[in-house]
From TrEMBL, chain A:
Organism: Marinomonas vulgaris
InterPro entries per the UniProt record, alphabetical: HODM_asu-like (IPR021848)
Protein name as catalogued: DUF3445 domain-containing protein
Automatic annotation (TrEMBL), chain B:
One Pfam family cited in the UniProt record for this chain: DmmA-like_N
Keyword presence, Iron-sulfur: yes
Record keywords, A-Z: 2Fe-2S, Flavoprotein, FMN, Iron, Iron-sulfur, Metal-binding, Oxidoreductase
The protein's name in its UniProt record: Oxidoreductase
Record keyword Flavoprotein present: yes
InterPro entries (alphabetical): 2Fe-2S_ferredoxin-like_sf, 2Fe-2S_ferredoxin-type, 2Fe2S_fd_BS, Benzoxazolinone_Detox_Enz, Beta-grasp_dom_sf, DmmA-like_N, FAD-bd_FR_type, FNR_nucleotide-bd
Gene3D superfamilies given in the database record: 3.10.20.30, Nucleotide-binding domain of ferredoxin-NADP reductase (FNR) module, Translation factors
Domain 2Fe-2S ferredoxin-type: 231-316
Every FAD-binding FR-type domain range: 3-107
Cofactor: FMN
Xref: CDD domains: fer2 (cd00207), PDR_like (cd06185)
Length: 337, 316
């Protein structure tokens, strides 16, 4: 990581969040074709793009680390049920902690370190000034559950999916920056149940194929895909639980402020088999960029204009863009002449 | 998605039953990946005439993955793999295995785990039991075998399970009354079966008769690929024709011909080796495709399935 974590910026109230030039350059721009098409777009989660690419490491730690961890702490303080784990997911929680501690200490030794002597572990996170001795597998030696403990130290939301009967179940997770979905609502649901509201894709058989693929992901072969939506203001926590805080903001977009107010919200989703529990870890690493910052790259602005213009109405509605989609298209049109 | 192979060294071979040998494997210059209870690895054996690939359950407690232990029964109708393991593999030999894969994990939310194991079908449960004991969850094992051939690990199971282990040696005329066992199980019990097809069918039949939903009955679907009439496979893109012999699987024949087909389980379960079919009458033997997909005939799992016609064309 060349870009060091910046001092804390806010994702609420005064919205001081901003992207540096480097962060804009490495932004995971999701539109690969001029016309918008639904696809599963899964690929192997192997490094690509070289040094400082967001795909360089298993988990991308970037300049927003401290801001996102501070935001997460606020959300969990407001509503502890953003971190849930059913009784049978305890082992998966340890899987998660191990995966994160091992990959972070390997990929970012300047910030994180892990010492292991059988089940006696020592963890250090210099960014958050954390040092912890604990016994792996013994929850009483950590200040909270392993999922809660480690989830507060890694950028991204996390769901741990139990795999049984050739299906996946939303049985544990820490979800503090969702794109309008609720862990507490989806808890215990099967793969097709929690995808129930998604339009168009069911009849295309996309979910059946995706489920077969996901249940077959082996240990050590993680996969990834990008997903996207738009968000008004640089707000991380667009959860149904907080809808009264942000729903109305969709009416505040105007032709004058659309470039500053509307953010492209991209999720780098990573799916990884947990070796001890056979659960599937689902990482949702969210990146936000304003339309104004997108426009610094003329190719992106042009392509995004075409993707937005061809976006089918059911998807405009599902993604919650109905009120201001036309303003986005109108703004981007100037880059596609 | 063919996962990277792992080189392992055989450090110990012991007889654990008249027809079952146990092999201990350690990583060559590397640590082995952790695994979850119920996992298996695919062992690749370099025979003189062909490469054998067989799936074997990992026997050891999943908490300790410093070594892998597998048990191999000498099959009466072996296609070569188990004979190779029994007769050719020696301590110190190097084999290659796939990373662990789990197609038979326990259901962690079960209130009680009821297990029926037949013969070498005990193997996937060897890694279940230590974790069940750690979690303090109720577990009962009914273990059926012919003592003159199989019946491995009775002592260690006895130490682990004590009063919840029930042993039936058919060579001593001991039989398990499956229906009686199923009859008195509490709600929230999940049932696991690994063993001969007859055992799986017997438990399922008893469950149906007792009104127990099949959604709580789980079986290890592994079946060794069975031989069949020879046939030819034509590759649409190249026109290459591959002969599949009576004892070969279609997947093995394609691999021998130099075609790399992604695969994981080689037992008709994982779906990774799925091939598009251009033409041909298929003999589907997998558990992956749905009945409607099978009757459509557009896809085939070459690891276990075969052709009814003399020639089929694959669109690969």
């Amino acid at each position: 990581m060349r870009v060091a974590p910046k001092p804390v910026q806010s994702f609420r109230d005064d919205f001081t969040y901003s992207n540096s030039d480097e962060a804009i350059e490495r932004f995971p721009f999701p539109f690969v074709e001029d016309e918008y098409r639904y696809s599963v777009n899964i690929e192997s989660h192997t490094p690509k793009g070289g040094t400082d690419s967001i795909y360089e490491h298993f988990i991308d730690i970037d300049e927003h680390y401290l801001s996102e961890m501070a935001e997460r702490a606020i959300v969990l303080e407001e509503n502890p049920r953003r971190c849930l784990s059913m009784g049978h997911m305890a082992l998966a929680g340890w899987d998660f902690l191990e995966r994160m501690m091992v990959s972070l200490s390997t990929d970012y030794p300047q910030y994180f370190s892990l010492r292991r002597d059988k089940d006696q572990w020592h963890w250090e996170n210099t960014l958050l000034d954390i040092q912890q001795d604990f016994v792996f597998g013994d929850e009483s030696t950590l200040p909270m559950s392993p999922l809660d403990y480690m989830g507060r130290q890694v950028q991204g939301d996390f769901a741990l999916l139990d795999q049984r009967d050739n299906d996946l179940f939303m049985d544990a997770g820490m979800i503090t920056c969702p794109a309008d979905w609720s862990l507490a609502f989806d808890a215990g649901m099967s793969f097709s149940e929690w995808h129930g509201p998604v339009p168009m894709a069911h009849s295309a058989g996309i979910f059946d194929r995706a489920l077969k693929y996901l249940t077959a992901i082996p240990i050590g072969s993680p996969a990834r895909r990008l997903n996207w939506t738009l968000t008004v203001n640089a707000r991380m926590d667009t959860s149904p639980e907080k809808y009264p805080d942000w729903g109305h903001e969709r009416t505040t977009v105007t032709a004058e402020n659309v470039a500053q107010k509307v953010y492209l919200r991209v999720e780098l989703q990573i799916m990884d088999r947990m070796p001890r529990s056979n659960a599937l870890l689902f990482v949702i690493r969210t990146y936000l960029i304003s339309l104004e910052d997108i426009a610094t790259n003329p190719e992106w602005a042009k392509r995004m204009h075409r993707a937005m213009k061809t976006l089918p109405q059911p998807l405009i509605d599902y993604k919650g863009l109905t009120r201001y989609h036309h303003l986005v298209v109108d703004y981007l049109a100037q880059f596609d002449r | 998605m063919s996962a990277d192979k792992i080189q392992v060294k055989v450090t110990r071979i012991v007889d654990v039953a008249p027809k079952i040998k146990e092999f201990t494997l350690v990583g060559v210059n590397r640590t082995l990946p952790e695994f979850s209870p119920g996992s298996h690895v695919m062992v690749e054996m370099q025979g003189q005439e062909k490469t054998y690939r067989n799936a074997y359950s990992l026997l050891n407690d999943a908490l300790d993955s410093s070594e892998y232990r597998i048990a191999v029964r000498l099959q009466d109708e072996s296609r070569g793999g188990s004979v190779y393991m029994h007769q050719s593999v020696k301590e110190g030999d190097v084999l290659s295995v796939t990373p662990p894969m789990n197609l038979f994990a326990p259901l962690w939310h079960a209130k009680k785990h009821l297990i029926f194991a037949g013969g070498v079908g005990i193997t996937p449960f060897m890694s279940y039991i230590p974790e069940f004991l750690r979690q303090g969850v109720n577990c009962e094992l009914h273990y059926m075998f012919r003592g003159l051939q199989t019946g491995a690990y009775q002592e260690v199971l006895q130490q682990e399970l004590k009063t919840t282990l029930f042993i039936y040696d058919a060579d001593k005329e001991q039989r398990c009354d499956i229906k009686e066992v199923l009859k008195c199980q509490p709600l929230g019990t999940h049932v696991y079966i690994c063993g001969p097809e007859k055992l799986v069918e017997g438990v399922e039949q008893a469950a149906i008769e007792l009104g127990i939903p099949l959604s709580v009955i789980h079986s290890e679907a592994f079946a060794a690929p069975k031989p069949g009439t020879p046939f030819k496979v034509e590759i649409k893109s190249t026109g290459q024709v591959v002969q599949v012999g009576e004892q070969d699987t279609m997947l093995e024949a394609l691999e021998t011909a130099g075609l790399a087909i992604p695969n994981l389980c080689r037992a008709g379960v994982c779906g990774q080796c799925s091939c598009a079919v251009e033409q041909g009458d298929l003999d589907h033997r997998d558990n992956y495709l749905s009945d409607s997909e099978k009757s459509l005939g557009a896809m085939v799992m070459p690891c276990v399935s075969r052709a009814n016609s003399e020639r089929i064309i694959l669109d690969i």
